């Protein structure tokens, strides 16, 4: 709906989030295993989306900041600072403090959940084998 967004809000700023295939592969593998009759249409829709959205953004002439998921997770404050800089917005020390307080509290809550689960690892973990895919297939398919 980029065209409609641009028509309604010609001064809108867009932030596009891009995840690597390896981040997306396992949930998609699960979905395809659960919904095999919809897999082909989901694949077609995804392919159209991946081509159409960048084209629509370019045609719309709206400002768009492209963000990598892994970078956002690793460095949220610096990514948001970059978005602000790209759009000519002021990133204030007050806003940075608010963000950092949120991130600190979120980490505390996540750590509490992990401690309750008795896990020192990630909050959510998935293995390729859970989706009938081997780690080798995943690494060959998703760079």
Concise overview:
This protein has 143 residues and is mainly α.
Topology:
Layout: H1 2-8, E1 13-18, H2 21-34, H3 39-60, E2 63-68, H4 69-74, H5 76-87, H6 93-117, H7 135-141
Parallel strand pairs: 1-2
Question: What does this molecule look like?
Answer:
There is one protein chain. The chain is mostly helical and 143 residues long. It is 65% helix and 8% strand. The radius of gyration is 19 Å and the shape is flat. The model has no long low-confidence stretch (mean pLDDT 80).
Overall pLDDT: 80
Unreliably modeled segments: none
Rg value: 19 Å
Count of discrete alpha- or pi-helical segments spanning 4 or more residues? 7
Oligomer: single chain
Main pleated-sheet profile: 2 strands, parallel
Residue share in helix: 55-70%
In terms of DSSP E residues, the strand content is 5-15%
Q: Which strand order do you get reading across the main beta sheet?
A: 1-2
Distance between the termini: 30 Å
The total of beta strands comes to 2
> What sequence of helices (H) and strands (E) makes up the elements?
HEHHEHHHH
Which structural class matches the secondary elements?
mainly alpha
Q: What is the 3D form?
A: flat
